[in-house]
Each structure stands twice: as structure tokens, then as C-alpha cells.
Amino acid sequence: MITALEPADYRVMPWQNGGGLTTEIASAKAPDGSLLWRASLADIDRDGPFSMLPGIDRVQMVVEGPGIRLSIAGSAPIALPPLAEPLAYPGDVPVDCSLIGGPVRAFNLMVGRGRGVGSLTLMKNGESRHFGGEAVHLVHSLDGDAHCRLPSASLTVPAEGTMILECVGVTVTAAEQARVIVASILRQ
């Protein structure tokens, strides 16, 4: 199944703890209403705790701004500079965030524990990569176009748009000067 989304389809909502705003790009729930996965862009404009999310595993990458430091379960702070390797951590432990020089926007992938394993891949400036059909893939263009080559079609994801590909192998190419995030959920 293939679903195309544009910014008008996204939902802006407060964080569970009221400490900020997030733009939910897409989510999926199990028949019992529990979370399978959720992809969102969080706007972080001040230091403070993240919401506790029992039974959820998170993967996060700063996509705009100077970066953040996260102290997870009381650990020494871990720096997340912009567009660096994503950080995976459990959502049901205390996480304190401090800004590094100003507000940021972070891409978040949340996956119900035991429901799947999430990952984020950043692609830019003409990079191309194949993603297998055994997972759900969300191709989100931060800016510029992303080109998706499927076995039966070629599709373009415009800037700020998202394409959800369920159980379909796809080759994604980021256009020149584009930044694209591929969020993958390998179901368990």
C-alpha cells in the first residue's frame, strides 16, 4: 500500500507533558488501539523534560537548529548535533533536554515495544539507497524532492511531503540540494 501525504494532512498537537508542540506526520495503531508507530517533527524551544512514553521506543534526529543534549535516565548528557546519527532510546525513562544555542526541530520515530524496530536514514544531495519490502517506510522530504522508484512506478515526494510505503521495496534518491529522511519500521 502506498499513501502520499502533504503538510495539510499533518496534525499539530501539544506534547503529552505540555512542554512543547509536535507535528504528527503519520501514525498506525493496532486493532486494540495501542501504538504500532508514529512519525513526527517536534519543535523544541526550551530546556526541559520529554514526555514519558511507557512501552514506546524512540529514535530521534535533529533536523533544524544548533542541536540538543539529552540526559537519558540520569546519564551524562549526549549531544545531538543537527543531521548527525540518530539516537535510539526507551521512551519510558526520564529524558531531560537542553538546547545548544537555540530552538531546534527534531524528527521522531516512536515504535511500540515488541511491535517493531525503528530506524532513521538521512539522505541528501543526490544520494540513492534501496530499502527492502519487509518493512514500512516513510519517505519524508525536509526540502527538495525525493524520488521513489518502485517495481511498478516512479513517484516524487515534494518538499515537506511524505510517502508511506507498506511492504513495498523502494529505491529512494534525494534530489541535488535535498534532505530526505527515511523512517523504517521493521515489524516483529
Explain what you see:
The protein has 188 residues and is mainly beta. It folds into two domains: 106 residues, Jelly Rolls (Sandwich), CATH 2.60.120.10; 71 residues, Jelly Rolls (Sandwich), CATH 2.60.120. It has no helices and 19 strands. Strands 2-3-4-11-6-9 form a six-stranded antiparallel β-sheet, with no helix packed on it. A five-stranded antiparallel β-sheet has the order 1-17-14-19-12, with no helix packed on it. Strands 5-10-7-8 form a four-stranded antiparallel β-sheet, with no helix packed on it. The radius of gyration is 16 Å and the shape is globular. The two termini are 19 Å apart. The model has no long low-confidence stretch (mean pLDDT 94).
Q: What is the ordering of alpha helices and beta strands?
A: EEEEEEEEEEEEEEEEEEE
From the 3D structure, determine the CATH topology of the largest domain: Jelly Rolls
Helix content: under 10%
Given the structure, what is the number of helices?
0
Radius of gyration: 16 Å
Major sheet characteristics:
6 strands, antiparallel
The residue-averaged pLDDT reads 94
CATH class of the largest domain: Mainly Beta
Low-pLDDT sequence parts: none
Instruction: Write the CATH architecture name of the largest domain.
Output: Sandwich
Strand percentage lies at over 45%
Silhouette: globular
Give the terminus-to-terminus CA distance: 19 Å
CATH superfamily of the largest domain: Jelly Rolls
Trace the largest sheet across and list its strands.
Answer: 2-3-4-11-6-9
